[in-house]
Amino acid sequence: MISRGLLAVGLLTASTSATVYFTENFDDKWESRWVVPSKWKAAEEIGEWAHTAGEWFGDAADKGIKTSQDARFYGLSAKLAKPFSNEGKDLVLQYVVKHEQRLDCGGAYIKLLGPELDQASFGGDTPYQIMFGPDVCGSTKRTHVIFNYPEAKGEDKNLLIKTDVPTRTDQLSHLYTLHIMAANNSFNVLIDGESVREGSLEESWDFRPPKTIPDPEQSKPADWVDEEMMADPADVKPEGYDDIPATLPDSEAVQPEDWDEEEDGVWEAPMVDNPDYKGPWSPKMIPNPDYKGAWEHPHIPNPEYSPDPKLHARATEVTAVGFELWQVKSGTMFDDIILTDSLDEATEYAKETFWKKQEGEKAMFEKAEEERVEKEKAEREEMKKKAEENGEPFEEGDSPFSVSDMEITEDEDEDDEDWEDEEEEDDENSFTMEL
């Protein structure tokens, strides 16, 4: 296992022109650098972090931190050696995430925090400058990229990317990288070194008012024809069309032998659909010769728009990094964080940490999966055998696990509801979720 200090020195030696603001590979002294917020929530609501290599790994001595209790909030922050801003410089935020628990609802994102941070009270209401990383709940699975932009219109200054960024939800480690480029105010999100979303900062977030607006002096002409199809004037409704009834008495129905007209009234055959009935008549449609297409409102330059050449400078006096999370099912791991102004630096860091462990971790996971499948198969066969001995039915889909193993308890369900309420409050203060 490479120590935090030696790795940082190696990186700085490799590229003296780059600046590494922060690294963390969670060695045995990690707790001396990180602070759990004691004033954020009641103690019983705060989950404990485990220092572990996980259930499957590439190096048993190389540990990360892992959420260890279900239905808990998790908070943690670490100060940088000194504050920094990235005006005029690239910014790269990179870290490793692994969901060993088959995550179904929970966050795994990291935040860059400013000078107003009180580590003891750090939580969902704490202002942040950048929030980046996976967020999963039900069918919503995305990688958050949220920037605080004080000049944004409206009360919410935390701006979500317009188009959701995909994420990974399997049980292996994945490398998440956010690269902001100063030269052209652009960005790139990479997972395991592969780009999953890139583009212009201005076009991908609502930082600035639109460049153009509909011309208030223009409106659609009264004679503008925007109906693409029209009724065929030559198509005439057939004579007697409306006289065809929708239903008819069933000609095959027979009055029951025990029908008593004095008691039951006059017998009437039940009604059935009329095969000749075609519904309300309407003429066939033909192309409209006067169709001009959809009218487009002419645009003019927006007088309120002005470009911001410093959109890339989303880190302004960053003093710390932090995790502020909720997890229904614990088991998410974090490791190998780097904050720098060089993508090359972050790439080299990943080579010395993340990539060295991947093959071993994958092999160990696949072996564990094979053993799990074999165990379940054996338990299923044992269940089948016992059912046959007792003369009881057995379905091939029956699970070897008891219902109690799989059911969510009422307490957990209440915790989920509490989280939904909590999250709505955080939306107003921290970010907008689309759950």
Low-confidence stretches: 8-14, 401-435
Backbone CA Rg: 32 Å
Order of helices and strands: HEEEEEEEEEEEEEEHEEEHEEEEEHHHH
Helix content: 10-25%
- Structural class, judged by helices and strands? alpha+beta
Q: What's the end-to-end separation, in Å? A: 40 Å
Oligomeric organization of the protein chains: single chain
Supply the number of helical segments: 7
CATH architecture call of the domain at 4-212 and 309-360: Sandwich
User: What's the number of extended β-strand segments?
Assistant: 22
* CATH class category name of the domain at 4-212 and 309-360: Mainly Beta
Q: Enter the CATH topology name of the domain at 4-212 and 309-360.
A: Jelly Rolls
Instruction: Indicate the proportion of strand residues.
Output: 25-35%
Mean pLDDT: 88
Shape category: flat
Summarize the structure.
Its main location: endoplasmic reticulum. The chain is α+β, with helices and mostly antiparallel strands and about 425 residues long. It has helices at about 5-15, 200-205, 260-265, 345-350, 355-390, 405, 410-430, and strands at about 20-25, 35, 50, 65, 70-85, 90-100, 105, 110-115, 130-135, 140-150, 160, 175-180, 185-190, 195-200, 210-215, 230, 245-250, 270-275, 285, 300, 320-325, 330-340.
